[in-house]
Amino acid sequence: MRANVQQPHAPQDAQPILWVRDLQAHYRTSHFGVRRGVKAVDGVSFAVRRGEIYGLAGESSSGKTTLIKSIAGAIRPPLEIVGGSVEFAFLPGYGGLHRAPPVDVARIRWRHLSYIMQGSMNVLNPVRRVESAFVDFAYPHIGGSRKQFEQQVVAHLARVRLDPSVLAAFPHELSGGMRQRATLALATICRPDFIIADEPTTALDVVVQKEVLGMIRSIQRETGSSVLFVTHDMGVHAHITDRLAIMYAGRLVEEAATAEIFRNPLHPYTRHLISSLPRIGDDTPREGLGGSPPNLADPPPGCRFHPRCPLATEICKREVPAMLEADTGHRVACFAVNQGARA
Amino acid sequence: MAILLRDLLRHSPEFRIGAVLLAFVLLLSVLASFSPYPPESVYVVPPDVPPSLTYWFGTTSRGQDVFWQLSFAIRNTLLFGCTVALISRLFALVIGLISGYKGGWIDRALMSVNDTFIVIPLLPILVLFYFVMRDRISWLMLALIMACFGWAYDARLIRSVVMSLKAREFTQTSLFSGMSTRQILTEEHLPYVMPIVFSTTMNNMVWSIGLEVTLAVLGFTDINTPTIGGMIYWANQHTAMVAGIWWWIAFPTITVVMAFIGLFLLALSANAYIDPRSRLWSVGEAS
Amino acid sequence: MSGYLAYVGRRLGQFLLVVFIGVNIAYVVTHASPIDPVEQSISAVTSFGNTSPGAIEQMRNSLRELYGLSGTPVEQYLLFWKRILRADFGPSMSAFPTPVGTLIGRALPWTAGLLAVSTIVAWGLGNLLGGLAGYYRQSRGLKLMGVIAMGLHPIPYYILAMLLLIVFGFLWPVLPISGGSAMNLPQTWTPEFVLSVLQHAILPALSLILIGMGSWFLGMRSLVSNVLAEDFVVYAELAGVRSWRILTSYVMRNALVPQVTGLAMSLGGIFNGAVITEKVFGYPGLGSLLVDAVYAGDYGLVLGVTTISILGVSIGVLAIDLLYPLLDPRVKVS
Ligand SMILES: Nc1ncnc2c1ncn2[C@@H]1O[C@H](COP(=O)(O)OP(=O)(O)OP(=O)(O)O)[C@@H](O)[C@H]1O
Ligand code: SF4
Ligand SMILES: [Mg+2]
């Protein structure tokens, strides 16, 4: 996989299109008096540039979905934004979709910002035909005559190699891969500036997965969109993303160009992730990481990785390491790495 | 159990209201044991006296004290509901557990019969039954007949719970550890099914009491055992409403409506407690 | 298409099973009596006046067949079915010599009309309001409606009908409280007659609608709050689909599916309600016919109304079942 890492396509100095600053999002539940709070996203900051594919990696339940739901404004109880801000270049001045007036949000949705949900098997209305989803989602933005619109949809479906007949089908009549591609077509037909994709290929077999990834790449290049691409699969990240952020227990721990992360991982957790990737012609047994991921309802103090970290020291148990630039464009949150780093 | 009740009392307004309503009704039915008059005797007090300090709920045209009569009536009516509910729970549990666990053709056959019982209009059949039995119809007989019809809806609910339990891992483990079907059903599944059984019990009582009142009002039951429906039947026989003896009808009606709403609210809050999806909303509304 | 046909086949099978079991229950119930019901019924009728001996003999024969008392047990059972399949319940004893079939035929349109209108109104309105209440959870008015529905839904039909009767019959007498139309009007399609029929139907229909609406309202409200959490609804919201469209085509449209099944399952219960409501308001339908037949000791009529009710309700259920695939495209494959 290592050899496969792509060179970045986006110009290094492109303007950001999304800024996330110190975002905190918690789940708060109360059921007949039993209260529970899960700090699923706890102080995350990063920026995504125009025209790049920005990857977000991390093990299951590290808070990836929660983070991008908060960014996409998909916030409903028990999820709450507790602090921080989210700003898109096309919706300036509000600090988050959840704070902007509904009219403005409705205007940018799908036109500027589209979203591919995790487990997108069930995102299509089961009792209506696929075509109605295109009409509901995209027609208000694209406009024109219905005939023209239909032609445009058919042409776009051809791009993800779907036959026009799927439009007349009900979702349950399509295979998993077909549904996935239909969802992809649905999310890209308006040529949005920003696409959020949450595990869009995880449920697919390897061949279809490759194909869908290729489609995302080519559509992204064609439209110049930015993509925030989430998956726990490092192989997929190596294949498609330009820059990559690693998430651990609700926080970012490292961020750099994808190639740089694979070549020179700095954070102990990232190193573990990279070294546990299977490599052809290398049979040395992988070292396992002791312990288990922290419970986000009651996370450990200080660096959340410290109970499992081979390099942990006293300070790690007390204080939270900040995300600091260790090298140009390479940020890490770790006391051991950052000792001599620039603030 | 105590914790459960405390949680429900503290956090569910439906449960609080339901519990208070039912408490009144139960208190009244317990008082029946202290009645100065036996329930069947007539002309023991002056007839047609409006509510007063001596006769709190007034007296009937048959010379009975409405208060004491009502306490017998509500006791018998509740007892009737409990009997039907208990017996029909047995049917519902057995059919639901077997159907959900066995699956296949047994499930299909049982559910066909089950759906038939859900669909058939019961009142005409009960009326036919009364027509054939006439005066030989007894309280217990009616309860048995209604229990034979009142299980179907809940058997379906129980079946769906068992089907989802079956898909879970622990059934597989128990299966490999050599437990028999009966053991798996009674030891592994029953504890998960019991909460639903409790909430359906309340709904079943609402249903059976409603039917009993209906039949009794028409005179199609054993009208000599005092029940709520029976009281209204006698009031109608004496055209109490036209004669202005409103208390003869009003108090039984209020009491039974309190019982209905109380039972229904308890079932509702029990369901909310069981269903994890409703948790979301309790948060959404609080904030 | 073949999927739909298989589905239709299954539903037809279920329909036949309901009718079969229903009629058998009626058979068993009629045979539960320890005394000879025929002689009892005949003596009850003949004590009223002079009926000709020939008529009594005809009555006795048809009763013996209906009760299934002539011939071997197998013959008895088959004879019972023959009568029922030909809808031949003999002459009515309380309205001798009018055939039971004629009496039922007269009453049927009243019940069918009352039930159809009140069920459709209750179901439609209850689902609409319940859907809105599930979607706009903060609305004060809809919350209040929920409280009212909770209070109305568990009350049995008889009690509510009686309350309406008291309110509109004694306290504020503005509506006719008894009968199907004004006595003095001939039953022809004149505007006065139609108006009178509508006026007389208001109270019975209202009792059925209020209770029915309560339960559809509560059911729909909780279904909607579950559907709201489904991926396809969240996704449509994220796509900026207009909220009215989401409410109708996504949320309500999906929540309606189980409500249609629910309607089929509760037809029997609704029919029970209609029986007693008709009796309270003296409405000239099957319910009143049934109750009066019991008072008059008219066995053929009681049995006739019972079997026709079972058949009618099953046909209603079958009709809903056959329309169901229109609403849920998934049944065709499963
Ligand atoms: N609706 C919810 N209510 C309460 N807690 C939740 C809810 N959804 C998620 N969580 C919790 O938030 C944490 C983060 O979940 P999230 O779905 O963001 O993880 P993820 O990184 O996307 O995982 P995966 O790779 O499995 O998709 C988990 O601990 C999870 O238990
Ligand atoms: S901060 Fe400390 S505990 Fe955390 S990763 Fe670095 S060395 Fe390990
Ligand atoms: Mg996720």
UniProtKB/TrEMBL annotation, chain A:
InterPro entries: AAA+_ATPase, ABC_transporter-like_ATP-bd, ABC_transporter-like_CS, Oligopep_ABC_C, P-loop_NTPase
Pfam family, one: oligo_HPY
Listed transmembrane segments: none
Membrane-protein topology: Peripheral membrane protein
Domain ABC transporter: 20-274
Region (Disordered): 281-301
GO molecular function annotation: ATP binding
Taxonomic superkingdom: Bacteria
Record's keyword terms, sorted: ATP-binding, Nucleotide-binding, Transport
Location(s) in or outside the cell: Cell inner membrane
Family: Belongs to the ABC transporter superfamily.
Purpose of the protein: Involved in beta-(1-->2)glucan export. Transmembrane domains (TMD) form a pore in the inner membrane and the ATP-binding domain (NBD) is responsible for energy generation.
Protein name: ABC transporter ATP-binding protein
Organism: Bradyrhizobium iriomotense
Record lineage: Bacteria, Pseudomonadati, Pseudomonadota, Alphaproteobacteria, Hyphomicrobiales
TrEMBL record, chain B:
Any matching Pfam family: BPD_transp_1
Membrane topology, record value: Multi-pass membrane protein
Domain of life: Bacteria
Membrane-spanning residues: 78-101, 113-133, 139-158, 209-233, 245-268
Subcellular location: Cell membrane
Residues of the ABC transmembrane type-1 domain: 74-267
Keywords for the protein's UniProt record, in alphabetical order: Membrane, Transmembrane, Transmembrane helix, Transport
Main location: membrane
The keyword Transmembrane is annotated on this UniProt entry: yes
Keyword Iron-sulfur tagged: no
InterPro entries noted in UniProt: MetI-like, MetI-like_sf
Similarity field: Belongs to the binding-protein-dependent transport system permease family.
PANTHER family: OLIGO/DIPEPTIDE TRANSPORT, PERMEASE PROTEIN (DPPC-2), OLIGO_DIPEPTIDE TRANSPORT, PERMEASE PROTEIN (DPPC-2)
Name the UniProt record assigns to this protein: Peptide ABC transporter
TrEMBL record, chain C:
Domain ABC transmembrane type-1: residue ranges: 108-324
Coarse class of the protein's main subcellular location: membrane
Keyword field: Cell membrane, Membrane, Transmembrane, Transmembrane helix, Transport
Keyword Cell membrane: yes
Membrane topology of the entry: Multi-pass membrane protein
Signal peptide extent: none
Annotated localization: Cell membrane
Lineage: superkingdom: Bacteria
Parts of the chain that traverse the membrane: 12-30, 112-136, 157-177, 197-218, 255-276, 299-324
CDD domains noted in UniProt: TM_PBP2
One Pfam assignment: BPD_transp_1
InterPro entries: MetI-like, MetI-like_sf
Entry's family note: Belongs to the binding-protein-dependent transport system permease family.
Stated name of the protein: ABC transporter permease
